[in-house]
Amino acid sequence: MTDATPSSLDPSSAVDPSSAVEPSSAVDPSSAVEPSSAVEPVETRMSTSATISTGSTTGDVRLAVDAPALLRDFNAAGVVAATDVHVATRLGRLTGEGDASVLLAVALAVRALRGGSVCVRLDDADELAALARPEDADPAGDGGAPATDPPPWPEHASWVRAVEASPLVAVGAGEPVDRPARWVGGRLYLDRYWRDELTVRRLVDARLAAPPSEPDAARLGAALARLFPAASDARQRLAAEHAAGRRLTVLTGGPGTGKTTTVARLLAVLQDVAGGSGDAAVGAPTAGDGPVLSVALAAPTGKAAARLQEAVRGVVADLGPDDRARTGLPEATTVHRLLGYRSATRFRHHAGHHLPHDVVVVDETSMVPLSLMARLLEALRPDAHLVLVGDPDQLASVEAGAVLGDLVARPPVVELVETLVSTSSTDELDDAEQVALRNGVVRLVTVHRQESDSAILPLAAAIRDGDADMVLEVLRAGAGGVELVEADTERLDEHTVRGLRDDAVDAGRRLVAAARAGDASGALDALSAHRVMVAHRRGPVGVARWAAQVEAWVEEATADAGLVVPAGTPWVVGRPLLVTSNDAEVGLYNGDTGVLVADGDPSALRPFDPSTGSGRRGLRTAPAQDGAGAVVAVFGDARAPLRVRTHRLPPVETVHAMTVHRAQGSQFRRVSLILPPSSSPLLTRELLYTAVTRAQELVRVVASPEAVRAAVAHPVRRASGLREPLP
Length: 727
Ligand SMILES: Nc1ncnc2c1ncn2[C@@H]1O[C@H](COP(=O)(O)OP(=O)(O)OP(=O)(O)O)[C@@H](O)[C@H]1O
Hints:
The protein is an alpha/beta fold.
């Protein structure tokens, strides 16, 4: 390994391969408020404002100079972007609303979506203060308006009066239904988000309030006792019993608390009780007949779906023969694919064409945004059993909404569930958990994973508890697969990051070797060996800069064999890929990761003309003899990879490093997390918790202690109305 000079860590050397901005959407107000479906943090969308003409005469297109003075001032302070102002003023023109305070409120509602909120609370001083933090305060400093001090907010009472009187705004939950914004309970929504929230509320409440199905108590009791025999299984047993009788169960818990185990076993319970008496004489299925309920397993990303399927099948394989036969081999898919994705707002299954399944289990529900949850709930048969599984302490979805967190924290919707019969007891639930159970929520708390010397789970627990001293203590102890590299991450040198470099190079070597050998499974396995994670997209602590850095290290380390670049293609064998948009036809979705591997007989990758490497050091190869091409992209489960020809690939990026948002739903054996400076608005408790819990063996945090403290001190705030009853 050759030492790179410190200058190779110079941020200015980083090339941003992904600087494409979203298409301008400022003209059509409805599309202007449609969030990007990209799985990436909010700051990526800040630069949008720099691409959109707002009629500025100053030449600075980030400033909305044609807007009323109040909006101009808030724009100049960086509180709202020019696009937010543009949407608000356009909606104002369409509805005859000229009051600047109302337009400011609408611009804030648009702005709030980018932070993941569904609405803006004008009466919440903390939220307004958070919005007043310029969202582009990232180290790159590459977007948004120049910050001046924000002007004072409009006087609250008159602001609310103006909003309530506005022709732009519908007030309350009822008529009229054709206005672009909605004011409910002190919250201002863009109408589309209000409708999605109402849909989720209505359909969740209907599920909770539906009369319970009453499975045969003796059979249920026997199945629960068989599948959850130990005293320590009590909460898992309760969740399974709840799922057998009710139409919505929300199963939560941190890593290693047995969520997946519970899912697999509860499927066995549900299949058993659905199998009726087992009396073959009357035609009822028996154990040997296999599954009788149609079950769908889904997760927000392909990677998470692959993990879910693998984990569930692993648990099923350990069940007794009858339960194994009853449960079968459930397939997992993405939520998009389950619903039959056609476009961001259109799916094959919907309220008029329900999914056929009797049971639908969604894992990693924290990543499901409000709009997708609304579409999923609409598409379910009313009598289907829905089980939402996830960890509400993780980062919420990139798009607006924090549905899992909201469902867990809501006040109770239905009276105490009376159907908990037979073996389950709620004795060990505290008062808050008893209340949550009325909303179908069962929280698993016991960590069962046997890694007693690992400090990753105690670290995650300290982050979740907001205990920054403990977090730093565990990190600094440097034992049990946890380490802290204390550093100013904007000025890292080679020596400081040598551990990170060694891990990245090791994983990269294995990846490239497997890819060149045409070993798809080996390459996909190597892809999860180590991952560099960051918070930002751009800047010295951004994904673009670190992806370029890791790529340079790996190229250097594997240069002896030369790059393998099949002739006539830009595709480098061994390049790790990240899919950046959905392509239902190919079966790849935003956030899926894969790798380019040599296709067919590796000897077909013979030298083409090493002397004409187009200025690039490396080995060029001819296409395989059979014309099938010499490189193929592989994705998904290492044991059954999905192979995609390069000409059919949707847009992809190289993924030597990724944002923590992107990494959600995936796990890696080793994780190196590089945190931005403590002033970054993206440093949140959920970000740190999510990154730490992606690691199986080792998590290395490269950060200043101040940045760690800042992350732990800032839980994410997301405004929505789901936690409150309708007025
Ligand atoms: N009731 C139990 N008793 C003993 N061991 C259990 C129990 N439930 C789960 N386990 C074991 O604990 C480990 C973690 O379980 P599981 O993978 O189901 O957790 P999880 O919550 O899905 O974790 P993650 O979110 O990290 O994927 C597994 O090894 C599993 O076999």
